[in-house]
Amino acid sequence: MAARAGLAGLDNLPEKLGPMAEAYARYWCAMTKTDGVPLKRALDPGAMRTFVANFVIVERHDPRHFVVRLAGSAVRELSGVELTGTNALALRDGEQREQGRMAYNAQLDTPCGAWGVVISRTAAANRIPTEVMVFPFRDDDGSLRFLAGTVEPVAPGMRPDQASAVTAKLLSWLEHRFIDIGFGLPKLARRKA
Question: How many domains in the chain?
Answer without folding.
Answer: 1
